[in-house]
C-alpha cells in the first residue's frame, strides 16, 4: 500500500453516549445507537512513507478551497493514536505518513466530525499496518482513537454500540442496513463556530449531574422501546423517543458541573418550531448532539417542505439532508 483514500460518515446518535467507565480504553457508561449520515463525511487520503520522521497532515475545511497545515494539537492526536496502535497490537513496523483530510460539513460544530475523521483514520492505519480486522474489530480500533462515537461510523446504516465490559467486548455493529428504513436527518446548521468544551471534558463531568444516575437507570428501557419502534417502522413512536432522549441528555449536560450550555436562542426557536410543525401535521422530531445545531428526524415525504420552511424562517441557510449511509470504506 502507498496511498489510499478512505471515506467515513459522521453519525447522529438516537441514544447518546455520555460518560465513561474507563477513559483510557474509552469504555462507555451506556449503550448508544445511531444512523450514519450520507451528506456528512470525511475523506482521508493517506500516504504511507518509509521515513518514520515524516508525520504530516493537511486539512481542507468545509467551505474552503485550499488545504491548510494541521495545527500541532490536531497532528498530536493522530501521532498518539498511531503509537497507541503500535503498542496495543505489538507492531514492530514503523512508518511515516502524509494525510490530507476533507470534510463535507462544518467541523467541530456538534456534527461528529471527530467520529468521521477517526473512523477513516482507523481504517487507513489498519491498511498501513496490514492488519486484517473484522468490522467489529475495526470499530474497536476506531473507539480506541479517543473519539468513542467513531466506532459507530464503521458498520453500515443503523448502528448499535454494545457497551461491553472490557476492550474486546465494547464494539459497534449494524442492526439494520441503510435501506432498512428511509428516515432522514436534516441538519440545520445554526452556527459553524468551534464548540467551547470538548466531549472529552464533558464525559468527565457527567456523573456530577444529579440526573445522571436516573438517566442511566432509564436508558435500557428506552433502548428497548426505541428498537421495537424501529422494528415496527413506527415513525411517530420512534421520533418521540429520539426527541425525549435528546432532551434528557441535555438536561444532564446543563446540570453537570461545570454546566454545558450548548444551545443558543436559535436552537430553542427551532425546537419550538418543530413542536408547532407537529401540531399542524408535519411529523418531525429534534435531536441535538454536543453542539448548537439541530438535527431534524423526518420521513422522505416531509424533506422538501421542511427545508423550505427552515430556509424561509431566516434561522439558517445551511441545511444538510442526510439519508442512512454505509460505514467506513475505501473509495
Ligand atoms: C454527544 O467522545 O465520541 O455526540 O470525540 O467529540 O466525537 P467526539 O465525541 P465523543 O462523544 C460523543 C458524544 C455525543 C453523543 C453521541 O454521539 O453518542
Largest sheet report? 8 strands, mixed
Helix content: 25-40%
**Residue fraction in strands:** 25-35%
SSE string, helices as H and strands as E: EEEEEEHEHHEEEHHHHEEHEE
- Shape, per Cα inertia axes: globular
List low-confidence stretches: none
Mean pLDDT: 95
Label the structural class. Answer: alpha+beta
* Number of DSSP strand runs: 14
Which ligands does the model contain, each kind named once? ligand DP6
Q: How far is it from the N-terminal to the C-terminal residue, by CA?
A: 14 Å
| Contiguous helical run count | 8
Rg (CA only): 19 Å
Short summary of the structure?
This protein is of the alpha+beta class and 331 residues long. Helices cover 35% and strands 26% of the residues.
Write structural notes for this entry.
The chain is of the alpha+beta class and 331 residues long. Helices cover 35% and strands 26% of the residues. The chain contains 8 helices and 14 strands. The strands form 3 sheets. Strands 1, 4, 5, 6, 7, 8, 9 and 14 form an 8-stranded mixed beta sheet that branches. A 4-stranded antiparallel beta sheet has the order 11-12-10-13. A hairpin with a 4-residue loop joins β2 (20-22) and β3 (27-28). α5 (212-231) packs antiparallel against α6. 42% of the residues are buried. The model has no long low-confidence stretch (mean pLDDT 95). Ligand DP6 binds at residues 13, 16-17, 32, 112, 114-115, 147-149, 199-200, 289-290. Ligand DP6 is lined by residues 13, 16-17, 32, 112, 114-115, 147-149, 199-200, 289-290.
Layout: helices, strands, pairs:
Layout (H helix, E strand, L loop, with lengths): L2 E13 L4 E3 L4 E2 L3 E18 L5 E6 L7 E2 L2 H17 L7 E8 L9 H16 L6 H9 L14 E4 L10 E5 L6 E7 L9 H7 L6 H20 L3 H21 L9 H15 L4 E4 L6 E6 L3 H10 L5 E5 L6 E2 L1
Parallel strand pairs: 5-7
Antiparallel strand pairs: 1-4, 1-14, 2-3, 4-7, 4-8, 5-6, 8-9, 10-12, 10-13, 11-12
The site of ligand DP6 has 14 residues, from helix 2 and helix 4.
